[in-house]
């Protein structure tokens, strides 16, 4: 039995003042992914069945390369934000949650940078 008042029990458990920003960034990235996906997938669709040289030429085009880099960056940021919400909501052990949040940031950053590097390498090779 606790002799704390209602206010005493909730002090320190309130808002961290980051929820609204997180919410909006997640929504903005979701909306941005729609046109980016369409603009990124069209050149890939046109390149299906083409030779390696034709695909390299398609993504050597600065517009296609920039759109694909933006798509990769926004997609991995959106993924990181979504996984963060899932981890915060469903992982209850503090040490495991902290490790999972760090791994989430590390892996999303690593894979996103790997994709950006791959597209940049193709864009600057041609």
UniProtKB/TrEMBL annotation:
Transmembrane intervals: 21-42, 62-79, 100-124
Gene3D superfamilies, sorted: Fumarate reductase/succinate dehydrogenase, transmembrane subunit (1.20.1300.10)
Main location class: membrane
Pfam families: Sdh_cyt
Compartments where found: Membrane
Keyword Ribonucleoprotein part of the UniProt annotation: no
Any one cellular-component term (Gene Ontology): membrane
Molecular function in Gene Ontology: heme binding; metal ion binding
Cofactor (UniProt): heme
Family matches, as InterPro entries: SQR/QFR_C/D, Succ_DH_anchor, SuccDH_FuR_B_TM-su
Swiss-Prot/TrEMBL keywords: Electron transport, Heme, Iron, Membrane, Metal-binding, Transmembrane, Transmembrane helix, Transport, Tricarboxylic acid cycle
Bilayer disposition of the protein: Multi-pass membrane protein
Top-rank lineage group of the source organism: Bacteria
Pathway terms, separated by semicolons: Carbohydrate metabolism; tricarboxylic acid cycle
Any GO BP annotation: tricarboxylic acid cycle
Function recorded in the entry: Membrane-anchoring subunit of succinate dehydrogenase (SDH).
NCBIfam families, sorted: succ_dehyd_anc
Subunit (UniProt): Part of an enzyme complex containing four subunits: a flavoprotein, an iron-sulfur protein, plus two membrane-anchoring proteins, SdhC and SdhD.
Name listed for the protein in its UniProt record: Succinate dehydrogenase hydrophobic membrane anchor subunit
